[in-house]
C-alpha cells in the first residue's frame, strides 16, 4: 500500500496500470482510475507470497541521478553508499532508513545492485520515491569525487579501531559506506575512504545486518550535526 501510493504521488513515475480491490480503491487519490479486481486475481498477477493489501501498480523504473547533481554542494545531509549489497530487502530497508534520517541520496554500483522494483520498493515503503539514487560504475572513484566535494567519507568495518561516534565528530557532511554481510567492504572501496570506523556492539555478536548498520550510522550522523 505505502509503496504504491508513494509511486502514484511521484510526478517522476510513469504508471502503466493500477489494480485494486474495491476496499483499497477507496484509499486512492482523486484522478486515479484503477481496474477493480478480486484479491485472488491480484494474487495471480504477483510473485508467489507477495502481500499486496489489495493494491498494486505497474510502473516504469525511476531514472538514476548523476552523482554531482544529487550530492553537490554538501549541505549537512548524509549520503549512503552500498557496496555489494544485492539483497532487495536489505537495499529497500536502507532506503527506508535513509528517508527516516534525512539522507540526501543513496549511491549504488551500477551492475551489482538490484533494480528498484518489486520486493525492494515494497521493503522501502515508499522511500524509493523520495530518496534520489545514483548508479556508478566505480564506487572508489565516486568516493574520491565526494571527498573532493568536501564530504567526510567513512567506511564501516567491524575490525576498525575508531568508533563511529568519533569518526563522525567532524562536522562535514558524511558519506557513509557499508558493505554486504559476510564479504564486507571490498579493500579498494575501504581504502578510498578518509576514515574507517566501527559500530561498538557486544562481543557475543560478530556483526549487524547491513540495513541495521546503515540505519545506526545515518542516525549518528544526523544526531552529531
Question: What would you note in describing this structure?
Answer:
The protein is an alpha/beta fold and 225 residues long. The chain folds into 2 domains: 2-59, no CATH class; 67-224, SPOUT methyltransferase, trefoil knot domain (Alpha/beta knot), CATH 3.40.1280. It has helices spanning 2-9, 22-25, 39-45, 67-71, 88-100, 118-124, 139-149, 164-167, 187-191, 210-224; strands at 15-20, 35-36, 55-59, 79-83, 105-109, 133-136, 152-156, 174-179, 195-197. The strands form 2 sheets. A 6-stranded parallel beta sheet has the order 6-5-4-8-7-9, sandwiched between helices. Helix 5 runs parallel beside helix 6. The mean pLDDT is 94.
Topology:
Layout lengths: L1 H8 L5 E6 L1 H4 L9 E2 L2 H7 L9 E5 L7 H5 L7 E5 L4 H13 L4 E5 L8 H7 L8 E4 L2 H11 L2 E5 L7 H4 L6 E6 L7 H5 L3 E3 L12 H15 L1
Helix pairs in contact: 5-6, 5-10
